[in-house]
Each structure stands twice: as structure tokens, then as C-alpha cells.
Specification:
- GO terms for molecular function: 1-acylglycerol-3-phosphate O-acyltransferase activity; 1-acylglycerophosphocholine O-acyltransferase activity.
- Keywords: Acyltransferase, Membrane, Transferase, Transmembrane, Transmembrane helix.
- The chain folds into two domains: 197 residues, no CATH class; 30 residues, no CATH class.
- Helix 2 packs antiparallel against helix 3.
- The protein is mainly alpha-helical.
Length: 252
């Protein structure tokens, strides 16, 4: 954890009645907006730099903000385990083996959290639940990539992974900071198309004038205004929830 980073959260927790970790979690959500704005401004031609930025921000959240060294190890175990299963296990049971491994690992950590029984403390199980959804889908996508295309539906063809990603791309997918702690989960193909900006290309037969507006040479459409509306709505519901808890006497 970064020195003195707890001080403002401890002070605010005493005023608002929420726990320090809960305020840190909300702060991480809010910080993701400006960080995402910076991410969008990394040149489209440098996806490796985008991966590095994503990994760096998530490392700041996990280690600098929450001091979750053990939690980071937990995410690494799930990620490396799922990747190795997808790479080395052949046959139709590969995605099921990956799913059992991921759910078993999550169950152990969920039981440990129940024994601690402190809902005000943020541990790694929230991020791990999101990761289970992502990595189990990853195993299925790899399995689909090994099947003849004639046996796949259109949906499966779009998300099939025919070649395993490198470790750097995979780490960026695993540690995508805007959805690290609370989701949503998404397929690796979506991440790859987003970071390479191929998802923003105009499909054949579509009038280019109908393309969403962009700034300068970036392919990613302008998104600042809808993002700010989402942030404002989220803050409103958080404050309403805290007011409700105070009204019921659940927090002082």
C-alpha cells in the first residue's frame, strides 16, 4: 500500500459511516473514468502500450490502494491455471476442467471470507468472481476454436479463439481495470477487437457518414458525455443507499 493513502479514507469513513475499504472501492470506480480517458488517448497503433497501462492501473488498485498482495497472487493462480489448461489439455472436457478448477479455487476463497465475516473489508473474491466468468468463457472460446466451423453457431464463430494470445495480451484482458472489481465480464475476442480498435471499423455496406463521431485520428468514438452521466447516476444511487442505511440505523 502507498504510504499515507489510508488517511483521507479513514477521515471520510468517520463522517459518512461507511468503511474505509468501501470508500476505496467507490474511489477506484471513479478513478477509472479519468484513467479510461487517458487509455483512450494512447495511440491506436500501440496496443502493447495500452496493455501496459491497463496492467499498471490495476496493479495500483490492487497493491497501492488495497494492499491485496495475497489477492493478486490469487488472481495470478486462477489466470495462469486457466491459461495452462486451455493450452495443454486437449479434448472435449477441457472447458469443463477449467470451470471446475476456477470454481474450486473461488470456493476456497469464499469459504475463507465467510469465516472472517467482515463485510466492510474488501478482499479479492469480488474480482475473482468476475474473473471466473471471464476465464471459463475463455476456455470455451478456445475449445470452439479447435472445432470445425461447420459445427459452430454464428455466435461461437465470432468468439472462437483459434490461436492462444500471448501472455501480455492475456494479462491485459485479465486485469482490465474498468471492470476489475465489479465487472462486467466479457469475451477475450471483444477485448482484442477493442484494444486493436477493429471493432470501430465501419462494416461493409454501411454509410461512413453514419459512423459515430470521433476526435482527431482516433477510431474510438467520443464517449465522455455518456460516461459522465453514468458516473453521476452511480453516485446518486450510492448516496441514496447510504442514506437508506442511516435511516434504518444499520450505520451511524
Amino acid at each position: 500500500m502507498l504510504p499515507y493513502i489510508d488517511a483521507p479514507f479513514t477521515y471520510a469513513a468517520g463522517i459518512l459511516g461507511a468503511s474505509t475499504d468501501e470508500l476505496k472501492l467507490i474511489t477506484s470506480f471513479l478513478l477509472s473514468y479519468p484513467f479510461a480517458g487517458l487509455l483512450k488517448r494512447i495511440p491506436d497503433s500501440k496496443p502493447a502500450l495500452k496493455n501496459l497501462f491497463i496492467i499498471g492501473v490495476s496493479s495500483f488498485y490492487l497493491l497501492g490502494l488495497f494492499d491485496l498482495w495475497g489477492g493478486t497472487r490469487t488472481l495470478a493462480i486462477s489466470s495462469i491455471g486457466a491459461y495452462c489448461i486451455a493450452k495443454y489439455v486437449q479434448g472435449p472436457f477441457m472447458p469443463w476442467i477449467g470451470f471446475v478448477f476456477l470454481m474450486g479455487h473461488l470456493s476456497v476463497n469464499q469459504l475463507a471470507r465467510q469465516f472472517v465475516n467482515d463485510p466492510g473489508v474488501v478482499d479479492i473474491t469480488g474480482a475473482q468472481m468476475v474473473l471466473v466468468m471471464k476465464l471459463s468463457a475463455f476456455c470455451w472460446n478456445v475449445a470452439d476454436g479447435r472445432q470445425p466451423e461447420a459445427e459452430l453457431s454464428g455466435f461461437q464463430k465470432e468468439r472462437a479463439i483459434k490461436k492462444l494470445p500471448g501472455w501480455f495480451d492475456f494479462a491485459g484482458y485479465v486485469l482490465f481495470f474498468p471492470s476489475l472489481f465489479a465487472g462486467p465480464a466479457f469475451d477475450y475476442v471483444d477485448y482484442k477487437q477493442w484494444i486493436e480498435t477493429t471493432m470501430f471499423e465501419v462494416p461493409p455496406g454501411v454509410d461512413p457518414s453514419k459512423k459515430a463521431p470521433t476526435r482527431k485520428l482516433r477510431k474510438i468514438p467520443r464517449s465522455g458525455t455518456p460516461a459522465m452521466w453514468k458516473a453521476a447516476a452511480g453516485l446518486f444511487w450510492i448516496l441514496l443507499f447510504l442514506s437508506f442505511l442511516r435511516g434504518t440505523g444499520l450505520i451511524s
